[in-house]
Every structure is written in C-alpha cells, then in structure tokens.
Specification:
Distance between the termini: 153 Å
Largest sheet: none
Number of strands: 0
Strand content: under 5%
Radius of gyration: 38 Å
Helix content: 55-70%
Shape: elongated
Length: about 250
C-alpha cells in the first residue's frame, strides 16, 4: 500500500473548509445585524439623489416661469396695466433673486415718474445699503438717488457722494462723472470739471450721446484732449479769402 506524500494536503483542505465556513458565518452574522441598515442607507441615498434632481429641474423651470412673468409685467407697465403694477410689487417684495432687484429698481423709477421722489429715494437708499447686492448695483442706486435730488443738494454734497464713484474705469464713470463735473462748475471750480469732461469724452465704453455732450463741455472749458493736426475741426482752419472777380 503506497504511503501518502509527506505533505499536509488533507490538513490544508480541512483548514480551508473551516476558514470558508467561518467566513460564511461571519458574513451571515454581519448581514443579519446590519443588512437592514444598509438597505435603509442606500434607500435614503437614492431618495436624496432623486430629490436633488427634481429640485434642479424645478429651479430651471421656475427661472423660466419667472422670466416670462417679469417680462410680461414690464410690458404691461408700458401699457398702464394695473395687474402689471401689482406683479412688479410682488416681485419687489418677494425673494426671486435678480428679478427682485430689477423690480425694486423699476418700482423706484416709477415713483420718480409719478412725482413721488420721497418713495423713490427711500427705495434707492435701501438698495444702496443692501449688502447682499453686487457693489456695482449698490453704486448705481447711490448715483440714481443723487440724480433724483440733484436740484436740492448743495454742490459740495454731490461731490462728497459721487467723487468715489466718478473714477475712470469705474462701471458708472460716465453718469457719475458728468454730475460731479457739473457740481464742480457750480462751485466755481472749472479747472476740476474740465479734465473730467475730457476723460468722459475719450472713453469709448461710454454712450456716444454722453461722450459728445462731455466733449462740448470740455471744449468750452479749454480741456479737450490733444488731437493730431490733420484731425482738427474744419472750423479751426482760417477762412478762405472771398473772390472778387478782379485779376
């Protein structure tokens, strides 16, 4: 009878079988203890994912709806539609992101049109003080408030409010700069007003109508930027001698 090899193959097989059985028992015990919680956790994760996808779709849909409603309200205002006025009020009092801000500016502008400067100023000042808004919009509210009460403000007060905003490169340089320069003229300081008008006239990012007006005022103050001789206006050239018909 042949002897078995001196190796421990039967023992190894037995150990492996015991080890596998032990692991099966461990897995079964783990699943019995935690399986229900795993299923619950996966379920919660799927519900959360579904909720997020639904919320994102709702956000996109709501933005589209808000855009249509706001556009319709703006068009209705031009036609004197009472419902449009109520819609703008609703947007202004709500929490609709940028549409609420636009509605607040619209509401203030309408107050000016209706002669209610006090209501307009209150709204513009609230916008200027709203730290949740981007700084350019807050600056616009400050500038517009000054424009509303410009005729009743002392020139020095206009200078104080607008000088920080009337810097070349600033978003509202053209509008703020023009009012600042006029205030300097009212103070009898044309030497301060002229360079501002000149800077506005040479800024190609500013509306052409404002640039043209600033150019005329800069010229009247002797502050036009240097121009090439061939670009000088024809009016500056000497007038031609009138012909008399004599040789």
């Amino acid at each position: 009878m042949a002897r078995e090899p001196s190796g421990t193959a039967p023992e190894d097989a037995f150990i492996r079988e015991v080890d596998e059985e032990y692991r099966r028992d461990q897995l079964t015990g783990f699943w019995n203890r935690y399986g229900r919680w795993i299923v619950i956790a996966v379920g919660i994760g799927l519900v959360a994912l579904a909720g997020f996808l639904w919320w994102r779709e709702e956000q996109v849909r709501n933005v589209g709806v808000l855009s249509e409603e706001f556009s319709s309200a703006q068009q209705g205002l031009e036609l004197g539609n009472a419902k449009a006025v109520a819609d703008i009020e609703r947007f202004a009092a709500g929490n609709h992101g940028g549409y609420t801000t636009l509605a607040r500016f619209t509401k203030a502008s309408r107050a000016v049109e209706n002669g209610d400067n006090a209501a307009a100023l209150a709204e513009y000042q609230a916008l200027a003080a709203d730290t949740k808004l981007p700084q350019p919009l807050r600056d616009l509210a400050t500038i517009t408030a000054v424009r509303v009460e410009y005729d009743t403000l002392a020139p020095a007060e206009v200078v104080t409010r607008l000088k920080p905003l009337a810097q070349p490169g600033a978003p509202w340089f053209g509008v703020a700069g023009e009012m600042l320069a006029v205030a300097y003229m009212a103070e009898g300081k044309p030497e301060l007003a002229g360079p501002i008008f000149a800077a506005i006239s040479s800024d190609e990012t500013i509306a052409p109508s404002l640039r043209q007006r600033a150019q005329q005022l800069a010229a009247s103050l002797g502050s036009l930027p240097d121009v090439a001789p061939d670009a000088a206006p024809a009016a500056d050239a000497p007038a031609a001698e009138p012909t008399t018909g004599k040789n």
